[in-house]
Specification:
heterodimer, A: mainly alpha, two-stranded antiparallel ribbon, 2 strands, B: alpha/beta, OB fold (Dihydrolipoamide Acetyltransferase, E2P), elongated
Chain lengths: 375, 298
Amino acid sequence: MNPTTPPPRRYSTNPGRILFIIALLAALGITGILLLRGNDITSLPNLLTNFKALFISIILEALPFMLLGVLFSSILEVFVSEATVRRLIPNNPLLAVLFSCVLGFIFPICECGLTPVVRRLIHKGMPLYTAIVFILAGPIVNPVVFAATYMAFRTEPHLAYYRLLLATVVASAIGLFIWRVVKTDPLRPAPSGVSGQAHAGSLTAVRKLPVRVHSGAVIGQTSRFVLSRVRSPRRSVIRGRISSSLSHAIEEFFEMGKYLLLGGAITALIQCLLSRDSLIALGGGPLSSHIFMMGMAYLLSLCSTSDAFVASSFASAFPAGALLTFMIFGPMLDLKGTIMLLSVFKAKFVLLLAVLIIVTVFIVALIAGQTLPMS
Amino acid sequence: MNQPKATLFRHAVMQTLILLGFAIYISYLSLSGHINYYIAPRMQSYVELSAAVLFLMAAYHGYHTYRQLRGLPSSAHFHHKPPRSALARGVLNSLFLFPVLLGFLVPDSFIGSALASKKGLSLAGPIHTRQIPVTLSSSVKVSGTSLAKLFPSDKYTGEYAKLGMKLYQTDHIQVKDHGYVEILTALQLYPGNFGSKPIDISGFIYREPSMKPNQFVIARFNIQCCTADAMPLGILVEMSGGDQLKTDSWVHLSGKLGETSYEGNPVLKLDAEKAEPITAPDNVYVQPSLDFSFEDQL
C-alpha cells in the first residue's frame, strides 16, 4: 500500500523458478498418468472422498505447527534484533554447526513450522550454513521426535539414538559443505513482510530498503525504527509491537500457506493413487532398499513426529538401515518440504540442497548400516 | 505498484474471509465430532487451538481492513501486495479457498477399504515388530514353563509374547479400541496358538481380489497424527454367508480364532458365527496404547 517504492518485480518472473516448477509439475503429471493407469477410472467419486480425507487431514495436522512457526517468526522479527541473533551464533564454523544442530531442543518443531522461522532468522543475519543445518537437523534432533521414535521402536530403541546421531552427522556435513562452497546469495528476494520494511505506525510508513551483506543477510532497522516512531509510553510501544507481530504473522500465514497447500494437495493425491505393495516389490536389494525408502519418504511427506511409526510398519520388509534412511531423509527432504523451501530459496539452491541431502544421507546410511550394530 | 485501492481492499477482505473460513470449518469439525475422521485424538486440541488463533487473526485483519478502508487510523500495516494480475490473484485466493470449499461441499468421511488397499494390509504376521527368527532356547529363559514354549520370544517380541500368554489364558478375547493394535499384533505373532478361542471384535469390512467369496478382513485404521500416516490392520475372517456383508460396512463379529493359509503364509483367521451390523464408532480410528495399560481390563 505504499505508492513510493518500485515493485520487486523480478521475484514473480524469475525464469529459474518457473522452469523448476514446470519441471516438477511435468514430472508429477507423468507420474500421475502412470499411477492412474492402474486405477479404476469409475472410482472417481471415491477418489474425491479419499483425496478430501487425506488433504484436509494433512492441512489440519500441519496448521498448528505452521501457525506456531509464523507466530514465533513474527515475534523474532519484532522483538529480537539482528545483533542478538549474530551474537548468539558462534564465529567458529564448527561450533556454529554444532550449535545449530541442537537448536531443535530449544524449538522442537517439524519442518512446516521451521521454514518460516529459518527464513526469518536468515533475514535477521543468521549465516546461511547454520540456517541450513537448523532446517535439516531441527525436525529430527529434538526431544519430541526422539520420544516418538523411541516409542515406535520400543523393541529396538537403539534406532532412536542412531536417528539423532546420523541426522546430526548428515546436517553438519551439508552445513560445512555449504560454508565452504556456496558464496552466492541463494535467497529469493525478500518477500513482503520480511525485514527491511517498516511496519506499525501509519499507513504511509517510510520503507527502508534492505541492505544486503554477506551471504544474503538482510539488515533492516525495523525494530528500532518502529520504536523511534512511536512517541508514546512504554505500554503503547508494546501494544504496537504485538500488533505488528500479528500483521507479520498474517502475512506470513498467506506467504507460507500457499506452499503448504500446494504440497499437501500433491501429497494427498499421490497417497490416493499410489499402491504401497507395488512399490515394496521394487525395493528388494540392499542398495535399492535405501533408494526406495528415500523415494517413499519423499512422496509420503510425513511429519517427523509420526514418520517413525510408519517406518516401523516397514520393519518386516526392510533392514534397519533402510528404515533409518527413511527417518533421516524424510524430515530433511520431502515433497511438501521442497515446495516450502522454494518460498525461501532460489530453485537452483533448492536443487543443490536436494542433491546434497540425497548423496549425504545415502552415504551416511550405508556406512552406518555396515558399521553400527543394528540389533 | 500503484494498484487501485479497491483491489487492495478486495484482496484484504478476501484474506479475512479465508482466515474466517478455516476457523469456522475447524470449529464445525470439532462440534460435529468429524474431526475424528482427520486427526488423532492426541492432536485434536492443537488443531482446535489453531482455530482460536485463526479467529483472532481474522478479527484483527478484518478490523484493520475496515479502519483503513474508512480512512481511520490503524496500527496495522499490511505489506502483502496482492499479485498484480487479476488471474494470479484469482489463482492465489482459489488455492486458499479450495480446502475450505472442499471441507464444506464434499461430505466429511473417514477412510476405508479403498485406501487400505493402497496402503497395504498385512495379514501375515506382525507389522510392528521385526520378524527375527525365534529360537526356542531364548524362550526358556522367560520362565521355562510350557506356556513360554508356546510363546517363544526374544528381546524384540517380549511384550507381545507376554500379552499373547495373557490372551491365551483368558476365556474370551474382547478386542476394544484401546489395545486393538497390540492385541492384533500379539495374536498375529502366534497365529497357531489360539485354536477355537472365542473372540469379539468390531471393524469395517475389507476385501482383496484374491479372497474367496466367504472370506473378508475385519479391519481398523491405526493413526498416529493424521490420515496420511494411517496404517490398516485386521484379521482374515471366514464366514458362510459372509459375501452378503458389504465392503466398508461396519460389523461386530463374534466367533472363534483359528489358523489358515493365505497367499502361502500361515495367518490368523476368525471363523465368524455372528455378524451384527453396527454404525461406525465416533472414534473411527484406533491408536496404539504404547504403555499396554489396557492389559488390566482383559
